[in-house]
User: Fold this.
Amino acid sequence: MTGAARPPVDQERGQTCQSARATVPGHVAIIMDGNGRWAKQRGLPRLEGHRVGVERIRNILETLTQRGVRYVTLYAFSTENWYRPPEEVEGILEILHQALREQVQSLHESNVRVVHVGKVDRLDPRLQEQVASAQRLTCDNTGITLNVAFDYGGREEILEAVRRIIRDGVPEEAVDERLFRTYLFTHDSPDPDLIIRTGGELRISNFLLWQSAYSEYYHTPTLWPDLGSDEVERVLEEFTRRQRRFGRVDPEG
Ligand code: FPP
Assistant:
């Protein structure tokens, strides 16, 4: 996974600068839903679904990288997921810890830049240090950027941006879209061009609320652990047939 230069970001829209006829999405964000159902269908504990789900990530990342995607954001744990049964929350935190321990070096060797998006203060000190060290190790990598949204919520992100803008004493007239996006957890990435949700639900679930204003959506009933490269290829193919107008009129009529 080596990388060419990142595509320029249109600072007004936060979108990668691409023509209206979409080609390769610069940024793909994924709601990885369906791990629990996948496990239940097989009579396995829910955590087994999460374990297999994490194993799928590498393969999907490679497919997206090969197709020229430059940013991938994975919705791994939402601010609402803390309300799941304590043993499931504990298990997911353990899976994250294990994934960081086992995968970060290899992601680094693949030139991947790992970025955490979300709150860190509710994670235990061991995880906080692991997240910080993964970011330090990979921060100069020039390949794909992998944003891991963990303890992430779109509403919380917007509130936190507002709090920081006030704390910084930013004058009212200076608050515009361009400034606001620099206060988001995702300030380092363009807005997602494409959001994929697995698991069959048709909702956004508090994911990238600001950033998804002009994202294209793709929903699939496929459960996350079953998502294969062939379906990802088909999604990317479908994306090329979307006409993106960003609220404007199609210049080709
Ligand atoms: C959605 O399936 C999945 C989650 C809420 C958690 C997934 C997170 C991990 C497996 C850890 C992430 C770690 C890394 C390294 C990114 P669900 O439980 O909502 O499935 P269901 O809708 O079938 O119940």
